[in-house]
Amino acid sequence: MGRLRRLARLLPAALFALGLVLELATPPNVTVSAPFAATPLAAAALLSFRGTVIAGVGSSGAVVLLTWLHDEAGPDIEPEARSITIVTVSALAVGVNYVLRRSGEQLASARVVAEAVQLAVLPTPPTRAGGLVFATRYRAAQTDARIGGDFYAVEETPYGVRLLLGDVRGKGLGAVEAVVIVVGAFREAAEQEETLADVAARLDRALQREGRRQLGTARFEGFTTAVLAEIPTHPDGPGTPRGAAPQGAAEGPVLRLVNRGHPGPVLLRHGRTTLLEPDEPALPLGMTELGVWPDEIDEVPFPPGSQLLLYTDGLSEARNADGVFYDPAGRLSRSYFADPEELLETVLIDVADHTGGESSDDMALLAVAHETRRSA
Known about the structure:
By secondary structure, this protein is of the alpha+beta class. The chain has 10 helices and 13 strands. It has helices at 2-8, 11-25, 34-46, 49-70, 78-121, 173-192, 196-213, 313-316, 328-332, 340-355, and strands spanning 128-129, 132-139, 150-157, 160-168, 224-231, 233-234, 237-238, 254-260, 266-269, 272-275, 298-301, 306-311, 363-370. A 6-stranded antiparallel sheet has the order 1-2-13-12-9-10. A 5-stranded antiparallel sheet has the order 3-4-5-8-11, covered by helices on one side. Helix 2 runs antiparallel to helix 3 (34-46), helix 3 runs parallel beside helix 5 (78-121) and helix 6 (173-192) packs antiparallel against helix 7. The longest helix has 44 residues, at 78-121. It is elongated, with a radius of gyration of 29 Å.
């Protein structure tokens, strides 16, 4: 994609050169103006404002000079009209480039505002808690400046460290309102509810309750996909549950998950990746009117040296020029990361390389690992 763009930027120069070649190949009384007219128009779409001005001045000057060199006495005004046309097209191209650049700057500014609003709504997660280290990232879509509904939260509770990452369907103020409700309900429920299933039920009820308060088009029309995670901790170190573990629980540090219709997290350990899909699919939050059944809590080992990556579909549905989706588990396989910060920085660079720097959806990332113990 980057190479294609670099080649495209050469188009104005190629059109100008084509015009000169055709001039040399045609009789002196014939002036070929089409390539010269196309040069500033191509520059307006592909080059900077300065580049467009240079292309316009060069094309206009070339046609005027060629018209003067080929001009013969007589009533024919076609050469002068041709020169006026090229000058006019060049002036329009400069104006078009200015408008395009201003629009791009406004879109970039709107994206910055969207990210700022989103981050203001989200509570800032701790970088360390319960013997674990965390890293988060939020990136607004490059092709859309509206505020999105991606969110994350981290809470240290009596039951261990609990994580939440999800995505509200839709964009705009309605999505922000839903984010506030879900994150607020999570921070309260994470402290009070004994199991992740109970936490998920609290979030579901909060969305349903708010939905009933809305009327008409303001009523929540969508749903919220989410992953809830729990890493039991102990004052002496991570991984030891304070309460009774579920039957069949794994020995040692564990990770418990409840997935409500969200892309599965990726578990990384020693260069190997595992996509943690739920054993039993469940409906997103806010859709219990379609059916209610107990949430399944999946449990997997989470020993020291492991890292967990949670993400929204802005990552897993990012596509390249051929329409191929980004595969976090596959792309991160056989890779090693010193800490969650390095993991997320690598992911952002890699997905930008995959998409050519373009993204059509917001992206929220949350990574967690055991804190490295340093010897005294």
